[in-house]
Amino acid sequence: MKAALYDRLGSARDVLRVEDVDRPEPGPGQVRVKIALSGVNPTDVKSRGGATAGVPTGFQVPHHDATGRIDAVGPGVDTARVGQRVWTYLAAFGNRWGTAAEWSVVPQERAVPLPEDIDDELGVCLGVPALTAHHCLFADGRLNGRAVLVAGGAGAVGHFAIELAKHAGARVVSTVSGPEKAELARLAGADLVVNYHDEDAVDQVKGFAATVDRVVEVALGPNLDLDLAVSGPRTVISTYAAAEDVSLPVRRLMTANVRLRFVLLYGFPEPDLADAVADVGAAMSAGALSPLPVRRFPLSEVAAAHEAVESGAVGKVVVDPTA
Asked: For position 34, which CATH number holds?
């Protein structure tokens, strides 16, 4: 099969290559998935670049998320799953066979049934972003009737945070940096969208809710002043992206009685992952989730796909191994 891979860390152009490799066979508890689309997330480019992972043993096929169809199963897996359409998550976590290839082999629980009436473009957007958004929102209880602030509502995690929060009965305000991203946040269902560059951004959020119950935060350092200005004793600030270390204003945090939650999908307890997968699937089946704008690259241009993510491409970058 053809697969994108790397055996050392560095820039996409320097280390990513596409080669013919032996098609993997599923082992005990595993399934093999014929990949239709492979999603590229910031975590994938950080791992390849060395920011969050070490040098792979042998080689690594990147990417966690995909849509495809199971074509083989290993010992201990129900053979009825052969032919099943699926979306994947954490495919490359502790596993050489990520989804940037014609086939991937993953633990069976990481290949989740995808209904035939759901487009690949939605299925490939789920995975890391939707599961991360779910944990940020629901790890501290239900949201019905509560106010949620989603920072970066045009990003993948922000997009699904808006949609999952609205599906759960929350009121949602989102902050963005400009008109194009504002429109994406509105399309996701945000009740109010605020440009965080506006001088009265805090007042706009406070006009929506004097204090918010959840903050889904993409940039804790730059946004913490705004977050604290709209926080109170019930507020949980969940941050899932860390570009650099942050100096925390401990007294202000203590005075506000806020809670800080740090979220990294790789460390989720299995029961939490299972709950998130089930809830995301239910929301999808209910029609509450939608795809981001998709930007496609053929497998041969996987390095360009990584560069697009690194440059802050709006929407979802995907690799098509069939192109």
From this structure: 3.90.180.10
Domain holding 133, by residue range, is 129-266
- The predicted pLDDT at position 130 comes to 98
Residue 274 maps to a domain: no
Mark whether 230 and 315 lie in a shared domain. Answer: no
The rounded distance, in Å, linking the Cα atoms of 108 and 29 is 6
Which tokens hold the place of 134? Answer: 């779910």
Q: For residue 96, is it within any domain? A: yes
Beta bridge partners of 147: 171
User: For position 193, which CATH number holds?
Assistant: 3.40.50.720
Check residue 287 and give its pLDDT: 97
Using DSSP, state whether 144 is helix, strand or coil. coil
Start-to-end Cα distance in the chain: 13
What are residue 273's phi and psi, to 5 degrees?
A: -60, -45
In angstroms, what is the C-alpha Rg of the chain? 20
Structure tokens that stand for 116 in this block: 């035939």
CA 219 to chain centre: 15
Chain mean position to CA 5: 21
| pTM of full prediction above 0.70 | yes
Q: Cβ of 273: how many Cβ atoms within 10 Å?
A: 18
DSSP string, 7-75: SS-S-HHHH-EEEE-PPP---TTEEEEEEEEEEE-HHHHHHHHTSS--PPSS-BB--SEEEEEEEEE-T
pLDDT digits (tens, 9 = 90+) for 49-60: 998 888 999 999
> What is the C-alpha separation between 111 and 95, in angstroms, rounded?
14
Q: Look at residue 242 and tell me whether its pLDDT is greater than 80.
A: no
Number of domains in the chain: 2
Percent of the chain with pLDDT over 90: 96
Q: How confident is the model at residue 111 (pLDDT cuts 50, 70, 90)?
A: very high
- Shared domain for 170 and 219, answered yes or no, is yes
159 vs 323, residue with greater confidence: 159
Overall average pLDDT of the 105-121 stretch: 97
